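Complex 214.
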Amino acid sequence: NFRLAPSFDAQAQSALLRPNPKLEQCLVNSTAKGLPPISVLPMSGQHLSILAQLMGVKSVLEIGTLGGYSTICFAEAGAKVTSIEIDPKHRDTALENVNGLDVEILLGSALDVLPKLAEEGRQFDMVFIDADFEDQWEHFDWAVKLTRPKGCIFLDDVIPSMIKNGLEEGGETILTKIGRDERVQATLMPTVACHSMIPTPVFTGFILAVVKSH
Ligand code: SAM
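Predicted structure with S-adenosylmethionine bound:
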């Protein structure tokens, strides 16, 4: 059935996605500037947008801007977005792409920027983590501190990061760390990603967590 995924994905995309010049221009400009094609897939961007609208999200903290595709999804859903990006070329491209939207992009490594946001007492309705795999747990830990109670954390690419980190079943993983964390209640949603740049569908997934307390 995995083989059918690209066909379902293509059908869903053509049926459910409406034209969005800002998102389309974001991809065109990001490609022209030489950014890697690793933004969230259009259907995933739509998922983030729906989640933000369902929660009435007014503020989003994003870790990993790239060209600003997911940033635009959140901003168009009605949120003010604070996004962190380590690569100046990605930040500059994203600034062009999000022009006119309520977005701030902070340049730096997330682990340098996140403590400063906490020091300033910033709180967000939702945190979207989509940066390097190595620091996923540390990013999650800061995200909990920066999310208001009953706000949510969306951690992308959980399964590829577990595979990349070579962690065996039964060993310490991002799942066991989050599972032990009494501040949150979390679930793992496995998904199948289809992308024109990759020959076969990829097994991936995200963690969605609600923050109970700090
Ligand atoms: N959310 C983006 C989108 O949908 O278009 C995609 C983000 S891309 C998968 C990951 C981004 O995180 C890259 O632009 C990368 O430079 C940035 N990044 C990686 N490690 C980072 C870190 N430690 N701190 C801040 N940004 C980081």
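The chain is about 45% helix and 25% strand.
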